[in-house]
Specification:
By secondary structure, this protein is of the alpha/beta class. The chain is built from 13 helices and five strands. It has a five-stranded parallel beta sheet with strand order 2-3-1-4-5. The relative contact order is 0.19.
Length: 247
Amino acid sequence: MKFPVRKIIVFEGLDNCFKSTNYYSFVRKMMLASWETGGKECRVITEKFPRYGTTSAIGVEKWLDGSFDRDHMKNYPEAINVQYSSDRFAYWFESVHGGERNINKLYDNETPTCFVFDRYNTSNAIYNPFIGNDTTIDDLTFDRDSFGIPQADIVVYFRMKNFDVLKSLIAQKADKDENELDTTFIQEVWERAERAIAKPEMFKRADIDLIVIEVLNDDNSIKSREKLSEEVWNAIINRLNEIGKGE
């Protein structure tokens, strides 16, 4: 495998779309591939956002547990985005060990590095667009333009094409946050996501390479864990190899 020098790969999708399951599967395979080459091919750095339990994610937790006035904040979605962006900003730029280093220094390093994230700013663009009711390029580049946060290079979106299947899976979830309890909100998000991924040119203008993974078969049954894992691995590695050959 020939990897590019530095890429941010993001796993995105609505709740209960098997995004996290495949994130862990892909990370394990990437780390094994890196270990087999002594880390020479590609160093792998991972993170899940929001980083619940950290001080930088307190605002996110207040939004999701209903502490903030949801009716008010729905009228000011940019305020919601800032809570999530603050967590990502802290991840990249917070000093470690007395200011000697931070994650952004690893991003600037020339060692081949793949940052693999479970959720990133694309979730904001789908859940909380702040211009109208549809995702725009401004939503996709909000973190970069407003905070100087590194932009995702590849977004792997797990598409649940049938809303009834998604609604059924969320209903079975034991611990639901305020977003998941709001069925109207979830349907709005699903519809917005469907419109967004139908506009790959918008992602391209934001310098984001979009890969859409279909979670459901043609008959709306859920694909097997093995089939999804294989599709995800092949799609990402093929794309990385293509990029690497061009650099």
